[in-house]
Amino acid sequence: MQEKVKNLKVKGILSSPVLISGAVLAAAGTAVGLKKLDYERVPHVPIGPSSVHLVLNGLMGLFLGWVVFPAILIGLILQAILFQFGGLTTLGVNTVLMGLPAFICFLAFGAGVRSNKPVVSVISAFLCGFGAVFIGSLMVAIALIFTGRPFLSVAKVIVIAQFPVMVIEGLITVFCFKFLKRVKPEILEVVYAKG
Predict the structure, then answer these.
(1) Which CATH architecture has domain 44-194?
(2) Each residue of 41-56: pLDDT tens digit?
(3) What whole-number distance in Å separates Cα of residue 86 and Cα of residue 29?
């Protein structure tokens, strides 16, 4: 048996037929899933000139640090290509609007979240989730104001409309962080060790 394994020229563990079968099945499942996707049921709540939805960028920032930027960029590329939502021309702006607040919250609240004091940890986690959406909505408002058009009233509506999402994301961040800190705390040590 060992001789057979030595004679195989493989780059990984799985054989080519297994890899090809997996790719074909994944492509078929994705194609069927996209065909069955009801775009009207995608969870965006329209409010005035915008829509609100969960982003969870604060939570991503806590777990990814600097890596949040490529993670968000890849997500936005897939969203633009697969769902035609967001667009390729706004990839840079949208990556910054979600990635920078996530990273700022990573820096601002990471130490507090890792605290051994449960109250400090919970408050920091909430502020991280809340703050990432808050900072992001302010950045969207600023981007609209700097377009050179009179978007001041729209910018205000966007920030106000995001308030319920800020609270929900803060609570979700607390829940997820407490759970993962209890069952798999080493996840955090990798990110925070690298800074």
Answers:
(1) Orthogonal Bundle (1.10)
(2) 555 556 555 667 788 9
(3) 24
